[in-house]
Each structure stands twice: as structure tokens, then as C-alpha cells.
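FORM 12-B: Structure-to-Sequence Request
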């Protein structure tokens, strides 16, 4: 294990505690890989090593891909909802343009009925019923 480097000087790091912990982790990882490499050379060739499951990184990548696809699908769904809402808003705008003249016509008709009703009531005798 002569390949190992001496621990770095914490004052020279400039990164503080985080820099030191990262350096310590890297040093431990290097030590582990050096020991694993030396052990791998001494393993007899007849000894078969068990198959390892897929690495956690691959599972994580598959999970992240699934999450990314789900987010893309949700965004597409929201885009479709926006398109539907825009179409509905346009329909309501057309309906509003159609109904505005009808409201005006209705209020004009109501004023006309009131005026005619007042005219008919004023002209008729007070006690007489209209002939049928």
C-alpha cells in the first residue's frame, strides 16, 4: 500500500469541513479499491464469484427515467387541458357576444310591455272589465 498518498493538510484545503470530509472519503475509497485489487489477484481461478444484482445506480437511472417520463406525461396532460380551456373560453366569448344583444332586446321588450300596460290601464274605465 505504498500507493497511498499522505492525508492532505486541512489548512491548505480552503473548503473547510466539507472539503476535508470529501478528501477523507476519496482516500477511504482509494484504500478500499487498492485492497480489493490486491485480493482479486490472490483469488484462485477455480473459485467462482456469485453474480451480483444490477447495481443500484442502474436501478436509480431506471427510476429516474420513469419519473422523467411521468413528468413529461403530466406536462402533456396539462397542455391538453389548457387547449381545452382555451377552446371553452372561445366558446364562452362567442356565447357572450350572442347573449348581449338578447339581453338588450329583452330589456327593451320589458320597457315596451310596461309602457303599453300603463297606456292600456290609463285608457280603460276604472270599473269595467274588458269584453270577452
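FORM 12-B RESPONSE
SEQUENCE OUT:
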Amino acid at each position: 500500500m505504498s500507493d497511498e498518498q499522505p492525508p492532505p493538510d486541512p489548512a491548505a484545503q480552503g473548503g473547510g469541513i466539507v472539503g476535508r470530509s470529501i478528501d477523507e472519503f476519496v482516500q477511504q475509497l482509494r484504500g478500499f479499491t487498492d485492497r480489493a485489487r490486491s485480493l482479486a489477484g490472490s483469488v484462485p481461478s477455480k473459485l467462482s464469484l456469485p453474480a451480483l444484482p444490477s447495481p443500484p445506480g442502474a436501478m436509480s437511472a431506471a427510476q429516474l427515467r420513469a419519473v422523467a417520463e411521468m413528468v413529461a406525461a403530466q406536462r402533456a396532460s396539462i397542455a391538453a387541458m389548457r387547449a381545452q380551456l382555451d377552446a371553452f373560453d372561445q366558446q364562452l366569448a362567442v356565447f357572450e357576444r350572442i347573449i348581449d344583444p338578447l339581453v338588450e332586446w329583452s330589456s327593451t321588450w320589458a320597457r315596451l310591455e310596461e309602457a303599453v300596460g300603463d297606456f292600456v290601464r290609463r285608457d280603460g274605465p276604472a270599473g269595467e272589465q274588458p269584453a270577452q
